[in-house]
Amino acid sequence: MSSIPGITLNNGVVIPQLGFGVWQVPDEEAAAAVRTAIEAGYRSIDTAAIYENEAGTGEGIRQAGVPREELFLTTKLWNSGTRDWSGQAGRDSVLREFDASLARLGTDYLDLYLIHWPRPMHGSYGNVWAAFEELLASGRTKAIGVSNFGQAELTHLFETTSVVPAINQVELHPHFPQRELRAFHADHGITTEAWSPLGQGGALLAEPVLAKIAAKHGHTVAQVVLRWHLQHGIVAIPKSVTPSRIRENFDVTGFVLDAEDLAAIDGIATGKRLGPDPSGFDWN
C-alpha cells in the first residue's frame, strides 16, 4: 500500500498527494518510467495529450500489473481542434479529444480530466467546461479540473457554470509559491496541484537554505522541497526517468519539516515564473 496521504477533492474523490508526472518524457521511455514509478509505490500518474506519451504511459500501467481501480490517472485536453471551442462543433471536438486520449492510454475512464490552458483571449473555456461537465455526468471521468487558470478565469466559471473545478494545476514551487492563488483555491474548495514542483534547470535545488535543511534531516534537497508541498496541502507531481530519482522522490513521508524549516523555505520565494504566463499563452 502507498504511504502517501490522499486529499479529498470537492466531489469526494480522493487523489494521492504525490503523483508521477511525465512531461517531456519521450513516448518510448514513458512505459519504463511509469512502470518503475508504480513499482516504487506511486498510485497517481499525470500525463497530457500534448506530451505525446499517453500510449507509453498506458503501456507502463499495464506492465506494472496494478489493478486500474487502484490508480489515479490524469490527462489534459490540448488547445488544438476547434479554435474557439464554441457550439456543437466545439463540444464534439472536446469529446473526440477525450476519446482519443482514452484510446491511447488503453483505459475506459479517467480519474481526472483537465483543461490544459485557459487561453482567456478567446473567452471560450466556459464552452469547453460545459463539455467537461457532460463527461463528468456520464461517469467517464471521476473528476474534472483545470490547469494554469487564474482567479479571473476561475471566477468566470463559478459565475457561468454549475461545477466548481476539483483541481487547478499550476506552476508552483518554493521560488514561485502562488500564495494568493492558493488562498483563493482554499476559499472556493479547489485543490492546488503543482507542476514543476522541483523547479526546472536546478536553480531551486542549489539553494543554500534548502541544502541546510536537507542536511539537518538527513534527506535530499528534492525530498525537502516535496515535503514542503505536502505540508502545505499541495498535490505535487515530480517527474524523472532515472529509477533512483523516481524512488527518492517518493520517499518523503519519514520526516517532518518544523515551523522554522517551513518559514525558511517560504522565505526563498522570488515570484518569478519558469513557464509562460497563462494570461497570454496561446500556443495551438
Brief rundown of the structure:
The chain is of the alpha/beta class. It has helices at 27-40, 54-64, 87-105, 125-138, 151-160, 179-188, 208-217, 221-231, 243-250, 259-266; strands spanning 6-8, 14-16, 20-21, 44-46, 72-77, 112-115, 144-147, 167-171, 191-195, 235-236.
Counting DSSP E segments of at least 2 residues, the number of strands comes to: 10
Gyration radius from CA atoms, angstroms: 18 Å
Structural class estimated from helices and strands: alpha/beta
Strand order of the largest sheet: 3-4-5-6-7-8-9-10
User: Major sheet: size, sense and barrel closure?
Assistant: 8 strands, parallel
Roughly what percent helix?
40-55%
Strand content: 5-15%
Form type: globular
- Count of individual helical segments: 10
| Sequence of secondary-structure elements | EEEHEHEHEHEHEHEHHEHH
Say what oligomer this is.
single chain
Low-confidence stretches: none
Beginning-to-end CA distance, first to last residue? 40 Å
Average residue pLDDT: 95
Detailed description of the structure:
There is one protein chain. This protein is of the alpha/beta class and 284 residues long. Helices cover 40% and strands 13% of the residues. The protein has ten helices and ten strands. The chain has helices spanning 27-40, 54-64, 87-105, 125-138, 151-160, 179-188, 208-217, 221-231, 243-250, 259-266, and strands at residues 6-8, 14-16, 20-21, 44-46, 72-77, 112-115, 144-147, 167-171, 191-195, 235-236. α1 runs parallel beside α2, α2 (54-64) packs across α3 and α7 (208-217) crosses α8 (221-231). The longest helix has 19 residues, at 87-105. The mean pLDDT is 95.
